[in-house]
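Page 42, continued from yesterday. The earlier attempt failed because a stray header line got pasted into the input along with the sequence. Redoing it now with the clean sequence only.
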Amino acid sequence: MKKFTNTKAVALKYKAYEEMAPKVVAKGKGELAKKIIQKAKEFDVPLFQNEELADMLLNVEVGEEIPPKLYDAVVEVFIWLYKLEEKAELSG
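This time it went through. Structure tokens are written below.
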């Protein structure tokens, strides 16, 4: 299991065909980030680690859609997630 030494976390939500872009639903640094990460683990939410992207997403307010300049970077996260889910289906 990979240890998270980074103390930043951002949670995104996206409903395809309902929303124009992913929204930031939680964000934080330090203890708050640790709580966000712990909650994600409790619900088996996959964790993607990219400090540069987290830094940029921390500038987006909770409840707001991500800005267009971050679309490409966030698409990479969703592609990673899709492949992870696909792999789980094949092995399960």
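Notes: DSSP finds three helices and two strands in the chain.
Reminder to self: strip header lines before submitting.
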